[in-house]
Structure formats: structure tokens, C-alpha cells
Design goal:
This protein is mainly beta. It is built from two helices and 13 strands; from the N terminus they run αβαββββββββββββ. It has a 13-stranded mixed β-sheet. Strand 3 and strand 4 form a beta hairpin. The two termini are 19 Å apart. About 6% of the residues have low confidence.
């Protein structure tokens, strides 16, 4: 999971500059996500090097919980706690509040409005629109393709591309959450090794 976090961090390090009406869709996406308040997303992830997994994440204000088969990442808005059940470790790190990537900071995963990516529409169907985000300065990145549902302006899929690896994320559901947000409790991980990078 750490390798995947690092790759997605690199892919989404910069915000976006609009080139056509695609920029207005990015603003609609940001507003649609914001209007949900607390929400939960289920997703399916696959990479071109044959890694595949299902997962989910929940967001409440600046807090989030990412759940995947090999572990979970809790964030209380100040620190993130990456729990690896296989190695029985909890890694604590500071929160990067400027990050836009889904596996590192889902709070801002779909807030792409900015200055360093060009965005254009590459497919415009009756119910969906696909936007291609291209880094203006290169920076070793290729493209990000984001497909939105036209009715809700919420994401259907996102594809992150690097030189030799592509990550495809299919959004299975993106819904308002009505259940209590789970708190991170140290007592739940008795016997785990704790590593603090803050």
C-alpha cells in the first residue's frame, strides 16, 4: 500500500488549469462533493502491473478513514495512522493538507481547481463526460483521466498514468454518510509496533 501511496502522491502533486469547459466540470465536481458533507466512497483499484484491490474511504470534515484489504489509514485532521495488519505496524505521519490524491488525502481527492494542469474534454456522452488533465510543465507525469456522471457531477472513474504504470480507480458508489465516524483508538492495536515519523 505504501508504494501505491507514493505513486499517487507524485501523480497528483499539482493542481489544475482549465483549457475549455472541462474546467467548469471540475468546479461542479468540487461543489458536488462539498455538498455531501460527510460521505463514503467504495472503489475498485487495478494497476497495469497486475495489482488489484477493492476498498472504501469515509470523509468527515478533515477526518478520513481508508480501508483496504491489507490495512487501514485513519486521519484525525492532524495526524494519519497507517495500520498494516500483516506486519502488525502502525505508522504515524503528519497530514499533507495540500495533497489531492485519493489514497493519501481523500478529503481533497477531487478538488483539482488550480493553475498547473491543463484540462480538456476528451469524451462527452449523454450521461458521462471524461476530462484529461495534462501537466503543463511535464514533471515526469503523463495524464489523469477523470470521468464524471453528468447528473450528479460526481466521479465514475479516475485513471492516473505514469511512465510505466497506470492506476485505474472505478468508483462503485459515492454517497452521503449517515453513520457515526469511527474514532482511532490506540487500544485497538495492542501488540502492534508503533513508528512515528512526525
Amino acid at each position: 500500500m505504501t508504494r501505491l501511496f507514493l505513486l499517487v502522491c507524485c501523480l497528483l502533486a499539482a493542481p489544475v488549469r482549465g483549457a475549455d469547459s472541462g474546467a467548469s466540470w471540475l468546479e461542479r465536481l468540487r461543489m458536488a462533493v462539498g455538498s455531501l458533507g460527510k460521505y463514503e466512497v467504495r472503489f475498485e483499484l487495478a494497476t497495469t502491473d497486475d495489482y488489484a484491490a477493492t476498498g472504501s474511504y469515509r470523509v468527515a470534515d478533515d477526518r478520513y478513514l481508508i480501508s483496504m484489504p491489507q490495512g487501514r489509514v485513519y486521519c484525525d485532521g492532524r495526524a494519519r495512522y497507517e495500520v498494516n495488519d500483516a506486519t502488525r505496524e502502525v505508522v504515524i505521519d503528519a497530514v499533507d493538507t495540500t495533497s489531492h490524491n485519493l489514497l493519501d488525502n481523500p478529503v481533497r481527492a477531487f478538488d483539482f481547481v488550480g493553475e498547473r494542469f491543463d484540462v480538456r474534454t476528451v469524451a462527452d456522452l449523454a450521461d458521462r463526460i471524461t476530462l484529461r488533465l495534462t501537466p503543463r510543465d511535464g514533471g515526469g507525469l503523463t495524464t489523469i483521466e477523470l470521468t464524471l456522471d453528468k447528473r450528479s457531477a460526481l466521479p465514475v472513474s479516475v485513471v492516473y498514468g505514469a511512465e510505466d504504470l497506470q492506476i485505474r480507480v472505478k468508483i462503485v458508489s459515492f454517497e452521503k454518510s449517515t453513520t457515526e465516524f469511527p474514532a482511532f483508538r490506540r487500544m485497538d492495536f495492542a501488540g502492534y509496533e508503533w513508528i512515528d515519523f512526525r
